[in-house]
Amino acid sequence: xxxxxxxxxxxxxxxxxxxxxxxxxxxxxxxxxxxxxxxxxxxxxxxxxxxxxxxxxxxxxxxxxxxxxxxxxxxxxxxxxxxxxxxxxxxxxxxxxxxxxxxxxxxxxxxxxxxxxxxxxxxxxxxxxxxxxxxxxxxxxxxxxxxxxxxxxxxxxxxxxxxxxxxxxxxxxxxxxxxxxxxxxxxxxxxxxxxxxxxxxxxxxxxxxxxxxxxxxxxxxxxxxxxxxxxxxxxxxxxxxxxxxxxxxxxxxxxxxxxxxxxxxxxxxxxxxxxxxxxxxxxxxxxxxxxxxxxxxxxxxxxxxxxxxxxxxxxxxxxxxxxxxxxxxxxxxxxxxxxxxxxxxxxxxxxxxxxxxxxxxxxxxxxxxxxxx
Length: 373
Description:
Number of strands: 41
Number of helices: 3
Strand content: 35-45%
Radius of gyration: 23 Å
Structural class: mainly beta
Helix content: under 10%
Mean pLDDT: 88
Distance between the termini: 74 Å
């Protein structure tokens, strides 16, 4: 057997029928076994196949475009959860392409690719639909992660897990060319994620897990009401919520390191009576701006944060947590603080013990009348 011998579809099918695992291993001469992405696609579409490509090396793209995958099975990577597609610790020499792909985990995960190494981009685009969590925990993606028009339903718990992953390009959660808005039901975890480019969320609908759906132990371990869970997120360029984004649930960027943060003028961050956006103890190397026309229902938290540029809050603020619309105790803003045209109702604006540049508040309105929301 020559070094780097390829695994054929027939061998993969035989292993699936027998319920055995073909793992990464060595062949004569010390080379590693490989499998073409086209072979995995063929076997994923086999109705009777059970695929466990744990640790395998793919020489080119993994292309599951226009595929329909339903059902889930166990693999050696996890004894507690099933998934429809397993790619844990796989090495993919090209891209992962899921264009107009539908994956239904039938109550389990859609994709689990913990610690995978992907040289190119991951493209879950153009009517991509997943029913069940997509888990890319500690995955290394060499280029961008594209979620143009993607619909992911993990509504009973987590929808997308990028915890401690590394992305060499940018993350795009935006509408597709036909105008289909991305829709994520369930928590997005970006805790410890490092993005070398930008994080752009545009015309997206994001919602925290449904508190009345499901009761498994995994769901019960999640803090309720979190739409985006991103403590220690690192984004070298900007984080932008653009155009008509709607986020129902908390956006948690506690202790994050960001290039800049923008919430555009038609965005809505809505979690009444809770924290809407948490930047406590974050480091922002540029500016933080919440534009005119945006609505924040909930509290903006900036305690202990450092903003090297300007801070601009021009939004309509309402329905805070504990009557604090802006909690910015001990914040440091090295540039100007712009509060022009801010419309704040139902709570206080607190910059206690803060270090600020010049404060400009022309046409700002703050109404903290008891009982007013």
